[in-house]
TrEMBL record:
Record keywords, A-Z: DNA-binding, Transcription, Transcription regulation
HTH arsR-type domain: residues covered: 24-121
Domain of life where this protein originates: Bacteria
Cross-referenced PANTHER family: ARSENICAL RESISTANCE OPERON REPRESSOR, TRANSCRIPTIONAL REGULATOR, ARSR FAMILY
Protein name: Metalloregulator ArsR/SmtB family transcription factor
GO molecular function, one term: DNA-binding transcription factor activity
Length: 122
């Protein structure tokens, strides 16, 4: 197997432009990649979907809906919170989680796809 490039010439302007483009979006790529990586877990995607649908939920409600223990849900929420994908608000003794606005544009297309898939299945 040949592992060398066989191009006739390098388009240095294109290469330089592409390098600059990658540099320009580097921070966004990191943030979006992190969000998608976390949302790639089935349970976390379900949690994010529910938070989008309901605006906010507590871990106990998520536990009931998903049939999981509260500690298991809390571990997923912790990862999402640390990544800045969800935020929380404590009201009395209850903690309510919601989606962070900063990532809504990343996740909304996924939620729209989930909604359209649901309609196709009907």
């Amino acid at each position: 197997m040949v592992k060398s490039c066989i191009r006739v010439y390098a388009n240095q302007a294109q290469i330089d432009d592409c390098k600059q483009s990658i540099e320009d979006v580097s921070a966004s790529v990191t943030r979006i990649s992190k969000a998608l990586n976390l949302a790639g877990n089935e349970v976390r995607l379900k949690i994010l979907f529910l938070l989008d649908k309901e605006s906010q939920m507590c871990p106990c409600d998520l536990s009931d809906v998903l049939g999981m223990t509260v500690p298991a849900i809390s571990q997923h929420l912790k990862k999402l919170k640390e990544a800045g994908i969800v935020k929380y608000e404590k009201i009395g003794q209850t903690v309510f989680y919601s989606l962070a606005e900063s990532n809504s544009h990343i996740l909304n297309p996924i939620f729209n796809l989930l909604a359209s898939e649901k309609q196709l299945a009907i």
